[in-house]
Amino acid sequence: MAADDSSTTILHLASGNGPITRTILSTPLRNASPTEIPIIDLSALSSSSILADRQHIATQIRTAATTNGFFYITNHGIDSTLISSAHSASLDFFRQDPTLKEPANTIHSTANKYIVGWKPPKTQKINHFEGADKRESFSLRYNPSWDPDAVLPLPDKIKQAIKVDEDGFPFTKTDVTVPHLKESIIPLYQAVLRLGRNLVRCFALALGLKENGFDNKFTYPDVSLAVNYYPPLDEVEVARNVSIGSHTDFQLFTILWQDDSGGLEVLTRQGQWLRAPPLKGTFVVNFADYMQRITNDKWVSTVHRVRNVSGGERISIPFFFGFNLDESCGTLDTCLEEGEEKKHEEISCWEWVERRIKHMNQMSKDEK
Ligand SMILES: O=C(O)CCC(=O)C(=O)O
Ligand SMILES: [Fe+2]
């Protein structure tokens, strides 16, 4: 961050259109208020609910989406035992000696290099202006055999595009040392995938579409689950480093579980950093770049980062959602006021993400 004037600083970020900046207020970091990051109760998402109840949820989502693009969900239906089991198996995986994690390194994936598998510490730079993220992670992408609601068979072109690793990588490589990793993570993956599909129906309502308006774009969604492991930042690092740099997520939306360490921070449109502290029994949901595009920038893809200053290790489990790889969605008519121009051209979610990643990596090359 470079100094601008005495009361503000400039934050540099990657975007799908090249580097951008944001002005940051010098007001101290503080906890978000319930209006800034609301808690939305999803009890009424159950199949026996009536449309009016789901509309009520949609109205709250719309307010959150147009305010800071972040909200907590409670009564989401995900069993806490699924979470605790995935959490402890993840700790068992990350706490191993690096040589034992190496076989699952993403570089050994035959089909999904750099996408699935283990990413060692300090190998990711989500914001090149802020240096390497002090995290390691373990990632999976969509696999129809883990999707309880998969509509099979998948179209051939999708089978090719999804590129499932035939040997079951990366779990084949964790089976020996952490055999319970797969059996703990997959049930959570399945539950969050189902929750995501339900939320997408609320998003459709919140955007003035029919409840099933996005269903056919979500039959084999381009999703990925990551487990992030953040060692604590030491005293020197706290001033200079990030656990994960300031960024926006790339696709449609993210459902994130965080442990009770804290450290997630969210930037308001006004340039104020807010803490999004862990709240028992909740997930955090945030909108991402592609959602912002198709809503003509009405729903915000909000900048966030993590600084793990808890003194202990921190785990988070984000689940990123995009439309089916072959689906494209232009600006939604329901997001345009009378006479309002569309701000973005139509592009598929997948092409958008590729462009976003290209720009992010370009910044790294420019640094050298
Ligand atoms: O760990 C967190 O709380 C946030 C992680 C995140 O923003 C990401 O993985 O994109
Ligand atoms: Fe993120």
From TrEMBL:
<dbReference type="InterPro" id="IPR027443">
    <property type="entry name" value="IPNS-like_sf"/>
</dbReference>
<dbReference type="Pfam" id="PF03171">
    <property type="entry name" value="2OG-FeII_Oxy"/>
</dbReference>
<protein>
    <submittedName>
        <fullName>2OG-Fe oxygenase family protein</fullName>
    </submittedName>
</protein>
<dbReference type="GO" id="GO:0044283">
    <property type="term" value="P:small molecule biosynthetic process"/>
</dbReference>
<keyword id="KW-0479">Metal-binding</keyword>
<keyword id="KW-0560">Oxidoreductase</keyword>
<dbReference type="Pfam" id="PF14226">
    <property type="entry name" value="DIOX_N"/>
</dbReference>
<dbReference type="InterPro" id="IPR026992">
    <property type="entry name" value="DIOX_N"/>
</dbReference>
<comment type="similarity">
    <text>Belongs to the iron/ascorbate-dependent oxidoreductase family.</text>
</comment>
<dbReference type="GO" id="GO:0046872">
    <property type="term" value="F:metal ion binding"/>
</dbReference>
<dbReference type="GO" id="GO:0016491">
    <property type="term" value="F:oxidoreductase activity"/>
</dbReference>
<keyword id="KW-0408">Iron</keyword>
<feature type="domain" description="Fe2OG dioxygenase">
    <location>
        <begin position="220"/>
        <end position="323"/>
    </location>
</feature>
<dbReference type="InterPro" id="IPR044861">
    <property type="entry name" value="IPNS-like_FE2OG_OXY"/>
</dbReference>
<dbReference type="InterPro" id="IPR005123">
    <property type="entry name" value="Oxoglu/Fe-dep_dioxygenase_dom"/>
</dbReference>
